[in-house]
Write a structure and sequence with these properties.
Elements: E1 2-3, E2 7-8, E3 14-16, E4 22-27, E5 30-35, E6 41-46, E7 53-56, E8 62-67, E9 72-77, E10 84-88, E11 96-99, E12 105-109, E13 115-120, E14 126-130, E15 139-141, E16 147-154, E17 157-164, E18 169-175, E19 181-186, E20 192-197, E21 204-208, E22 213-217, E23 226-231, E24 237-242, E25 246-251, E26 257-262, E27 266-267, E28 273-280, H1 295-302, E29 305-311, E30 315-316, E31 333-338, E32 344-349, E33 355-360, E34 365-371, E35 378-381, E36 388-391, E37 396-401, E38 404-409, E39 420-423, E40 429-433, E41 437-442
Parallel strand pairs: 28-34
Antiparallel strand pairs: 1-41, 2-41, 3-4, 4-5, 5-6, 7-8, 8-9, 9-10, 11-12, 12-13, 13-14, 15-16, 16-17, 17-18, 19-20, 20-21, 21-22, 23-24, 24-25, 25-26, 27-30, 28-29, 31-32, 32-33, 33-34, 35-36, 36-37, 37-38, 39-40, 40-41
Protein name: WRP73 protein
Organism: Hemiprocne comata
Pfam families: WD40 (PF00400)
Length: about 450
């Protein structure tokens, strides 16, 4: 594994381009675009204010920078550095901005969710979508980019509108049987739309492209409901993470539950492997000691290294009791993600913040538990193979694959606390982000 030097960063804003050739990052009001292989600066753009969000167009030719405080979006072209576009929402304000899949339209959501404005970069025309709902995931594009679903709220009822992205014409408009629609997400094949209720009501609804309700699923009543969902890449499974600490898997034929995965504080499954991170003190040969110590030696002397041990079951995991009288209690399945080959599902129960659970989807059984020394901040699957990277807010990056797992110390001076990471589309590198810096980690193909 090789690591680049540290580069400055603000707002955790660093993104690989979809074609994998460029890496964009932000430092306050500056947008820096680098070549992925050399990390040389290709373009440097100056925005009108501090950048709060960035997004590449699907063809990697344009990059959008949103400044929500000022209600402005600026768009920069990589092919023509002198060209740029500024969209000012004025007094309507701005709370969200994103590209359409064609990379030539921008969807801006105004303050108080009064409307979504669709701006065309080609014709300079403007379309409006009224009554968008203020919810966590209110806009969802199909993977092929042909359709977009928008969650709406009018007359105290929830609706979903489906538009054709080529001309923004309304295809279907229907009401949903939800109390308080929280999010919508298309299956990867674009045939089924999942819509789920806010946490006070356990309900998930499945709709076809023409607005027919295919099925509805409720696991229980009178308790906090759905916290997260994830479609499998093949669209065959829908995983639902709930506040009761369980993941329920629905199948795509009957939309009935085929199994549920529990996340108890004690792992007693003899078939599962439990990897526990343990600290080891660095050993230094006395002949190498010099005074003053060299920089590399000094950093290795004071950085605690860690490795994984295999624990004998049963294993007790660190459990955090949720504070019952606070909003958004730390409980339930907060993160879940399928591996790109459909073979594994990684989950995290917020009551047990230091553990990642990896499930074998072909056998529907627990496969591995990784117990870390610190709380897990982020995890993400390699887009090309079943390999999971995770970070825990320290200067290490952790990798798991069916062959085993490894802890790697990032060799940086000073405090580099990794709170987020993102894979390159090739799976050969990833960007590691801290609050103020980022670096790129390059992996050899044979590793792990």
């Amino acid at each position: 594994m090789n690591f680049s030097e540290l580069f400055r960063l603000s707002g955790l804003l660093s993104r690989f381009s979809p074609d994998g050739k460029c890496l964009a990052s932000c430092v306050q009001y500056r947008l820096v675009v680098r070549d992925v292989s050399t990390l040389q600066i290709l373009q440097l753009y100056t925005c009108l204010d501090q950048i709060q969000y960035i997004e590449w167009s699907s063809d990697s030719l344009f990059i959008l920078c949103a400044m929500y405080k000022r209600g402005i979006v600026q768009v920069w072209s990589l092919e023509q550095p002198d060209w740029h576009c500024k969209i000012d929402e004025g007094s309507a304000g701005l709370v969200a901005s994103c590209w359409s899949p064609d990379g030539r339209h921008i969807l801006n959501t105004t303050e108080f969710h009064l409307r979504i404005t669709v701006w065309s970069l080609c014709t300079k025309s403007v379309s409006y979508i009224k009554y968008p709902k203020a919810c966590q995931q209110g806009i969802a594009f199909t993977k092929d980019g042909r359709y977009v679903a928008v969650a709406e709220r009018r007359d105290c009822k929830d609706f979903i509108s489906i538009f054709v992205c080529s001309d923004w014409q309304l295809l279907r408009h229907f009401d949903t049987e939800t109390q308080d629609l929280f999010g919508i997400e298309w299956a990867p094949n674009g045939c089924v739309l999942a819509a789920w209720d806010a946490c006070l009501e356990y309900k998930i609804l499945l709709y076809s492209l023409d607005g027919r309700m295919l099925s509805t699923y409720r696991a229980y009543e009178w308790s906090l409901g759905i916290k997260s969902i994830a479609w499998s890449p093949s669209s065959q499974f829908l995983a639902i993470g709930s506040y009761d600490g369980k993941v329920r898997i629905l199948n795509h034929v009957t939309w009935k539950k085929i199994t549920e995965f529990e996340h108890p504080a004690t792992v007693d499954n003899t078939k599962a492997v439990v990897y526990r991170e343990v600290e080891k003190s660095p050993s230094v040969e006395t002949e190498r000691l010099s005074f003053p110590p060299t920089r590399a030696l000094a950093s290795s002397l004071f950085s605690t290294q860690s490795k994984y041990d295999i624990s004998q079951v049963p294993v007790s995991l660190q459990y955090v009791k949720p504070v019952a009288d606070r909003a958004n209690p730390k409980m339930g399945i907060g993160m879940l993600a399928f591996s790109p080959d459909n073979c594994f599902l990684a989950t995290k129960n917020d009551n047990i913040p230091n553990a990642v659970w990896i499930w074998d989807i072909q056998k529907l059984k627990l496969f591995v538990v990784l117990e870390q020394l610190c709380a897990i901040q982020s995890f993400q699957w390699d887009p090309r193979q079943p390999r999971l990277a995770l970070c825990t807010g320290n200067s290490k990056v952790y990798l798991w694959s069916p062959a085993g797992c490894v802890s790697v110390q990032v060799p940086m001076e000073g405090d580099f606390q990794i709170v987020s990471l993102s894979w390159h589309s090739s799976g050969d590198s990833m960007v590691l982000l801290s609050k103020d810096n980022f670096c790129v980690c390059y992996l050899e193909r044979e590793e792990v």
